[in-house]
Specification:
The protein is α/β, with parallel strands linked by helices. The protein contains 28 helices and 18 strands. It is globular and about 80 Å long.
């Protein structure tokens, strides 16, 4: 493993490197010199050299990726770059880092590391082919493609199998998990794609991961980071606004029905192949699957997140989970007795033990975070008790123990060893105030010199218009979504009047999204508007975005998945419609517990926590509109609380400094490029800077 102790950057001139005549401009198409980018790169260089913490917000168009890659690639130490999604990982590894590395002529090695579920597993592929049990004929076809193609790939990465959809059920059969990996006992251990990726990561100067992998590795010490992090000089966390939510998943504990069903499936396969005479495996696994279904029947039919204290049928769920534990024990006994016959049987037995411990720990009403330590960490202390809650979706459910605050645990990670920590995103602060974000991650000691923000270089006053329609019903009114569609239709038409123009309609709930899609389909047909209508969920996000860009005049109806991390430039996106202010639902179990705790402390949870969160999320959604210097469009927010409530001012002031109007004619004229009623449009530069 290479680990250079020095992180002193060579005597380089960042101004020259990032200038209009520098090597980056010569190597990267469309590169522009931006003072904000230079300042951000200098702040990162300083943090790397001092092994300090920097929290940096950079508005859209700043070029933050280049701003952190230039000092990172020249630093001379080991760097981990973590970003929000696997798609962004691939973009960094395959496009951004190679371009910057070539421009700088930097002799650094780079590795891409994903979670084990992203790599084909030789053992589970072989077992699945032998068993021949798959949900559908389509999955059987996908299995043949994977079997014939995986040896032709160098990495075994799922991303290389373009013909197999990323959400295909077959992937869960041919990849491994932390629970079912055989480790060194696997007969294919030396050919393992996961181990090969880890070896590359250990040797590389720069390792690209995603936030889920980063926290899984830090907390579970499972995916190779247990060795990577100690050797690391710098951690760069891009899309850092996602960290608090992601961290909660890993500083807490979860166990779900899917894990139990997968255990039953694997136990059936391992039992038949390695110990057919030891038990009636079909009966045992069928009984366990039935117990899971019985537990699901005690929960509400609809998708819901509910705390244990608010769950109506607590006794019924507890009884069903006790019965499930009994069936787990019934299956575990013959697995233990047969464990020496095959590595797969022993692994399945250990998984049964872990799931038993996790469910028992969740059922322990006096759980202090220590009762269920199977493969995880203590989730809480007396000062930071866990929230016990249930998540229901479709035919499945998950049991969660989540600490109200992850600040103490994350602070421990920061303080564990001296290294540079860089947090960056376009949305970390509310009007230059980082206090909410710093508090959530336990970074309270970071001062104003290390928490900085740079505005977008785009000319929002001329490129964008904020339109809030008048006479809208209250956001909770039954007719609200129908009115959103009615108000949006004239603007959709205007966006396509003088040429094609694409539209995002972003909703805060899936129910609102689906209802709006139904209404839009009816209205577009009735009006004879032949515009492509896309809906989140009809394909992967990547597929939908590709279709949206190519069509140029599509209307995409979406929810949370498209509020962030989506980049559509030009006329392909001229109008973004947001239905409601994105306040987190008050019945969210963890949020509800946090609000109650703040109230007991005499604090104003709405002003201190809920409102700043909504402002940051709203800024994310608004950020979809203007992605380039030549973009031009309207942001339509249909929730009149933005203008009618006293707190609304804080929300629109957190948005980029675009002009504002309440008149539909202004918005239509802006979209058509005529701006015929521009005298009614407010210029809010002074107010926004107050």
């Amino acid at each position: 493993m290479r680990h250079r102790a020095s992180t002193a950057l060579p005597d380089i001139d960042l101004n020259a490197l990032l200038s209009a005549s520098g090597p980056l401009a010569a190597a990267i198409p469309g590169f522009r010199h931006r003072p904000q980018q230079v300042e951000m790169a200098q702040a990162i260089r300083k943090a790397i050299e001092s092994e300090g913490v920097a929290v940096l917000e950079a508005g859209t168009g700043t070029g933050k990726t280049v701003a952190y890659l230039v000092p990172a690639l020249l630093a001379g130490g080991k760097v981990i770059v973590s970003t929000g999604t696997k798609n962004l990982q691939d973009q960094l590894f395959h496009r951004d880092i190679p371009a910057v590395r070539r421009a700088l002529k930097a002799p650094v090695t780079v590795a891409l590391l994903k979670g084990r579920a992203n790599y084909v597993c030789h053992y589970h592929l072989e077992k699945t082919i032998e068993a021949g049990r798959l949900p559908s004929k389509e999955d059987a076809r996908f299995l043949r493609l994977i079997a014939s193609g995986h040896k032709a790939t160098a990495s075994g990465d799922r991303a290389e199998f373009a013909q197999v959809p990323e959400n295909a059920a077959v992937w869960s059969y041919v990849t491994s998990s932390r629970e079912n990996c055989l480790g060194q006992e696997c007969p294919h251990h030396k050919d393992c794609y996961v181990l090969a990726a880890r070896r590359d990561a250990l040797q590389a100067d720069v390792v690209v991961v995603n936030h889920h992998l980063f926290f899984a590795d830090v907390m579970l010490k499972d995916e190779g980071m247990a060795e990577l992090l100690p050797a690391c000089n710098t951690v760069i966390l891009d899309e850092a606004h996602q960290l608090p939510e992601t961290a909660r998943l890993f500083f807490g504990q979860s166990v779900g029905s899917t894990q139990v069903m997968e255990l039953a499936r694997d136990a059936l396969g391992e039992g038949f192949s390695g110990a057919r005479d030891a038990a009636d495996w079909a009966a045992l696994t069928r009984a366990l699957e039935n117990a899971v279904r019985d537990a699901r029947l005690t929960l509400p039919e609809n998708a819901i997140r509910v705390s244990w204290t608010q769950l109506l049928k607590r006794d019924a769920l507890e009884e069903a989970l006790r019965a499930l534990l009994a069936r787990l024990l019934d299956l575990a006994r013959p697995l233990e007795a047969s464990a020496e016959r095959a590595e797969g049987i022993e692994s399945t037995w250990r998984r049964a033990q872990e799931l038993t411990a996790l469910i028992e720990g969740w059922l322990d009403e006096h759980n202090d975070g220590k009762a269920a330590e199977a493969g995880s960490v203590a989730v809480a202390t007396k000062a930071n008790p866990p929230v016990r809650w249930v998540e229901v979706f479709g035919h499945n459910f998950q049991l969660h123990l989540t600490p109200m605050s992850i600040a103490p645990m994350f602070r421990e990670q920061i303080q564990a060893a001296r290294r540079a920590w860089i947090f960056t995103s376009a949305t970390l602060a509310v009007k230059n105030d980082f206090s909410l974000y710093l508090g959530e991650l336990g970074l309270d000691e970071v001062d104003s010199t290390h928490a900085q923000t740079w505005p977008s270089p785009f000319d929002y006053a001329n490129q964008a218009l904020l339109y809030v329609p008048t006479d809208m019903p209250e956001a909770q009114a039954p007719e609200f979504t129908a009115r959103v569609v009615d108000e949006a239709l004239p603007l959709i038409e205007a966006a396509n009047r003088n040429g094609p123009g694409g539209v995002f309609m972003l909703f805060t709930t899936l129910r609102g999204m689906n209802r709006a899609h139904e209404l839009l389909a009816e209205q577009l047909q009735r009006r004879g508007m032949e515009l492509p209508l896309l809906l989140q969920g009809e394909g992967s996000r990547t597929e939908l975005l590709e279709r949206f860009r190519k069509l140029g005049n599509a209307v995409l109806v979406a929810s949370q998945s498209f509020w962030e991390g989506v980049d559509v430039k030009g006329d392909a996106l001229k109008l973004v419609v947001i239905d409601k202010l994105p306040f987190a639902p008050p019945d969210d179990p963890v949020l509800s517990a946090r609000i109650d705790a703040m109230k007991r402390q005499g604090r104003n949870a709405f002003m201190e926590y809920q409102l700043p969160h909504a402002a940051i999320t709203l800024k994310q959604g608004a950020g979809r509109l203007i992605r380039d210097e030549t973009d031009h469009g309207v942001l339509m927010i249909c929730d009149t609380r933005l203008t009618d409530k006293p707190y609304g001012r804080k929300l629109w002031q957190a948005l980029p400094p675009m002009r504002r109007t309440r008149l539909r004619g202004d918005a239509e004229a802006f979209l058509c490029g005529t701006e015929g009623a521009s005298n009614t449009i407010e210029t809010s530069t002074e107010e926004a800077s107050e």
